[in-house]
Amino acid sequence: MEARLLRYYPGRGIRLVKGYMQYVWDDRGKRYLDAHTGHGAAFLGHSNPAIVDRVKRQLGELVVCSLSFDCYAREEAVRALSRIAPSHLDSVAFANTGSEAVETALKMAWAYTGRRALVAFRGSFHGRTLAALSATWNPRYKAGFPVLGDVVFLEYNGDPGEVERGIKRLEGRLAAVIVEPVLGEGGVVPARRDFMRAVADAASDAGALLIIDEVQTGLGRTGRLWAHEYYGVEPDILVVGKALGGGIPVSAVLARGEVAASLEGGRHGSTHAGNPVAMAAVSAAVDVILGDDVPAKAAAAGSLLKSALESELDGARLVREVRGLGLMIGVDVRRDPTPILKCMQDRGVLALRAGVSVVRLLPPYMVTPSDVEVAASAVEACIPS
Ligand code: PMP
Q1: End of a domain among 273, 291, 309?
Q2: Is the pLDDT confidence value at 385 over 90?
Q3: From the CA of 295, how far away is ligand 1's center (Å)?
Q4: Are residues 239 and 262 in the same domain?
Q5: Counting atoms of ligand 1 from 1, which one is nearest the CA of 184?
C-alpha cells in the first residue's frame, strides 16, 4: 500500500512540473506567475541558472562533509555570508530550516545569558519546532503541545512606553527579545520605527539579547538587504532562511562572536548543517543578491506592485489596506482570503494567505512591469465587489 502523504497545508489542486525564474508550470502546461514561491523560498527565482550551475558542480565533487571536517564549499559560503552580514556579527552557524535556525538562536541566547525568559510579540511566527513554536503567537498552532512557559507576548507595534515597561518588568531573568521587522505569517505588518527602536533599547537596557528573525524579510526581499536596516537597530543575533539557498533548504544564524561561542564545546549539533551542496547554493545565492542588485530591484518592483494594487483596488469595499515593504505585500480583505487565492490561481497567479484576512504576495525579485500588471489585475478581478 502506498503511504499517505501528510501534507499539513491545504492542497491547492494543481501539480507543478517545472519552474523558471518568476514562473511555474503545471502538468497541463498552464503557466503561473509565482507570488507564492514556496512561502518565499524562491525569491531568487526558480532554477536560477547561476545557482543551478554551482549546485550541479558541487554534486559531482562532494555531497557530504560533517562540520568535523573542512571543505572548500563551506569555506566559500562563510566568505559569501561575510559579504552580506552586518559587520558586527562575525560568527555564523548553519542549519537546515528557519525553525531550526530560530531554535539555534534561542539556545545561544539561553546559553549566553544563563536566563530563561523570552519576549515575543502577538502575531509573530518563528516556526513549528518546539522552542520556535513557543515564541510563535498563534494559539491554534500551539494547542496540545508542551510549549515553553516563560515566553511573554507583548503587542506588536504597541506603544513604545508599554513595550519598555513590559521588557523592564522581566529584567534579571530575560534572555532575549525575538522580533520580525515585518510580521510575515501574522499578516504582512511592517514594524513602526518608534516601536522597533523601543524594542531594541529596552532589550539592551535589560541586558537581554535582540534576536531579529529575518527568515522571511531578509536577503533583499523588503528592498534593503536586511529589513532591520530601515529601523537603525542592531541585532545581537540575526536569523536567515527561506531564499538563502536559492530554494535549496538551508538557513543560518549570524551572531556576535561571544554570543555564538556559548554553544560551542559540544552543546549543539546537526547532521546536515553546513552540507556542501547547500553551501554551494548559499555562495551562488549571495553572488546573485549582490551581483544583480537584488535589494534595489525588489524595492523598484515592490513599489510598482504596491501602487498598481492601490490603484486597481481604489474604492474596493472589501479592501481594508494594501501594505508591505518591497516585494512583501499584503492586501487585507476583511474576510477569509481562500476563495480569492483560488480565483487568482485560476487566472494564473499564485499567492498565499497571511493572518486571517490577508492575501500575501511574495514574488521573485525579477518580476517585470507586465508581471506586476498581471498580478494586480488578478487580485482586483478576484476580490468580490
Ligand atoms: N521565521 C519566520 C519569520 C518565518 O516566516 C518562517 C516561515 N514562514 C519561519 C521562521 C520558519 O521557517 P521554516 O518553515 O523554514 O522552519
Answers
A1: 291
A2: no
A3: 20
A4: yes
A5: 5
* Atom 15 of ligand 1, nearest CA residue: 98
Q: Is 328 exposed, middle or buried (0-12, 13-18, 19+ CB in 10 A)?
A: buried
d(C-alpha 124, C-alpha 58), whole Å: 36
Tell me the β-bridge partners of 33. 23, 349
Q: Please list every protein residue whose CB sits less than 6 Å from any atom of ligand 1.
A: 39, 97-99, 102, 125-127, 180, 184-185, 213, 215-216, 241
Query: Does one domain contain both 104 and 64?
Result: yes
Q: What value does the mean pLDDT take over residues 317-337?
A: 97
- State the cell numbers at 326: 518591497
- Looking at the fold, whether 347 and 275 belong to one and the same domain comes out as no
Averaged pLDDT score across all residues of the chain: 98
Atom of ligand 1 nearest to the CA of 40: 8
pLDDT exceeding 90 applies to what percent of the chain?
99
Ligand 1 center to 42 CA (angstroms):
14
From ligand 1's centre to the CA of 384, what distance in Å? 31
- Mark whether 97 and 177 lie in a shared domain: yes
pLDDT at residue 384 greater than cutoff 90? no
> What's the pTM?
0.98
Whether 215 and 259 map to the same domain: the answer is: yes
Q: How far is the CA of 96 from the centre of ligand 1 (A)?
A: 11
pLDDT of 154 > 90? The answer is: yes
Q: Structural domain tally of the chain?
A: 2
Tell me, what's the pLDDT at 199? 98
Q: Are residues 88 and 141 in the same domain?
A: yes
Residues 6 or more apart whose Cβ sits within 8 Å of residue 7: none
Q: Which domain holds residue 351?
A: 16-47+294-382
Q: Is residue 149 scored above 90 in pLDDT?
A: no
Distance CA 20, CA 46 (A): 5
What is the pLDDT averaged over residues 179-185? 98
- Mark whether 128 and 192 lie in a shared domain: yes
Q: Does 6 map to a domain?
A: no
Of the residues 271, 291, 311, the one at which a domain ends: 291
Say if residue 351 is in the same domain as residue 222: no
Number of Cβ within a 10 Å radius of residue 140: 6
The pair phi, psi for residue 124, each rounded to 5°, is -70, 155
For a substitution probing ligand 1, which of 121, 141, 214, 242 has the most ligand atoms within 8 Å of its CB?
242
Q: Does residue 305 sit within a domain?
A: yes
